[in-house]
Specification:
273 residues; alpha+beta; Tetrahydropterin Synthase, Chain A; 3 domains; three-stranded antiparallel beta sheet; 10 strands; rod-shaped
Length: 273
């Protein structure tokens, strides 16, 4: 029998393992010959390119690691196997109710992408590697986000996802699971909190709009002052601007506009009289 290490995983084989293997092979050969060719059909197994087979001989893992891909042979009544899928699997973590560091209640869900990198560990060290990884991801999500403030969760998702991925990858290494990526899908706030944040954002937008409008009026008044200073140096320029303004007003509507003539234009006729 294999002796267990501190984590419960077998790592040594007793001295009588060789004799046991020989007896198992003899027994399997006898059964194979007695039931040939039916035993031949039952003994030949095939695993796909993305799979590996963990073979057990009389309850012990066969030395040499997982087999595959391709064809391999099993001794009847002696060997059994379990196939393991090595492809990346996505775990959809359901929404978790989390109380943040600043006492805000939020609901956060995530998705975890992981794969099996050691088929033997994923079989002998844990009952269900994928289910265990899913449950661990949900627990870690609550624990890690519970140490963050609401503003950090909303604005720093990338670093939180990276930290969560590292923590999960380290925890699942004894199970033969490699966590490739973790993504926070959605952060849901209570309805009253959403209304409060929306009102705060609207107030901030209105304040910025008033500041921008005030700055625009200040710049416009400065430009008008500079224009007035330039035009005050030339009375003719003021008259020309006056005529341009009246032309613009008369072009907008079909109406009669009465305006006083400048006194300077009438002095010439008054002097003749």
């Amino acid at each position: 029998m294999g002796n267990g290490d501190p984590h419960g995983a077998p790592h040594e084989v007793s001295d009588d393992s060789g004799d046991t293997d020989i007896c198992a092979l003899i027994f399997g050969g006898i059964v194979f010959l007695l039931f040939f060719p039916f035993s031949l059909l039952c003994s030949i197994k095939i695993v796909q390119e993305y799979e590996r087979a963990v073979i057990f001989r009389l309850g012990r893992v066969l030395s040499g690691g997982a087999k595959g891909p391709g064809l391999f042979f099993l001794f009847p009544c002696v060997d059994s196997f379990k196939s393991v899928d090595l492809r990346v699997i996505s775990y959809d973590i359901p929404p978790q109710e989390i109380l943040t560091q600043d006492s805000m209640s939020v609901s956060v869900d995530a998705v975890v992408y992981a794969r099996v990198f050691d088929a033997t560990k994923s079989i002998i060290n844990v009952e269900d590697a994928h289910q265990s990884t899913r449950l661990l991801a949900a627990t870690s999500l609550r624990n890690i986000l519970g140490t963050k403030s609401l503003s950090d969760i909303l604005s720093d998702r990338e670093s939180i996802s990276s930290y969560l991925q590292s923590a999960l990858d380290e925890a699942t290494d004894p199970w033969g699971i490699k966590v490739e990526r973790v993504e926070l899908k959605d952060v849901r706030l209570p309805y009253n909190m959403q209304r409060s944040m929306a009102a705060e954002a609207e107030s901030a937008r209105e304040a910025r709009a008033k500041v921008i409008a005030a700055e625009g009026e200040m710049k416009a008044s400065r430009a008008l002052k500079e224009a007035a200073d330039v035009m005050s140096a030339s009375p003719a320029a003021i008259q020309l601007r006056f005529l341009q303004t009246m032309n613009t007003v008369s072009a907008q509507r079909n109406q009669t506009v009465i305006f006083p003539l400048p006194v300077d234009l009438l002095k010439r006729f008054l002097n003749r009289q």
